[in-house]
Amino acid sequence: MVGNLQGIYEWMSVLLLSNEYEAAETVITQGLQHYPADISLWEKLAISENNLHHHQKALFAAVKAKTLSHVNDPSNVANMLYDMVVSNQEIPPIIASALVKQ
Questions:
Q1: Left (φ > 0), alpha (ψ -120 to 50) or beta: where does 89 sit?
Q2: CATH code assigned at 90
Q3: pLDDT tens, residue by residue, 6-33
């Protein structure tokens, strides 16, 4: 396991950009054990779960990210991600890529 948040982000980004969603899910889940209030980790978990077609898990992660963001702006990343997961839309690669790089 990676020992710090920066290391988690680096591994997670590589895995997500490589479409290694199961491995990314594992790294992100471990990261959330140490950083449960990290919105970015929840957003990226929603992407991984969505791309693995785990709708309920993706929805849980998207709701958690939206709740933690405390922002009602529809252009907020967590809100956009939540809307896509709720409507069972595939997350376009350009959005997933932008989220990974934040």
A1: beta
A2: 1.25.40.10
A3: 677 777 777 777 788 898 888 889 889 9
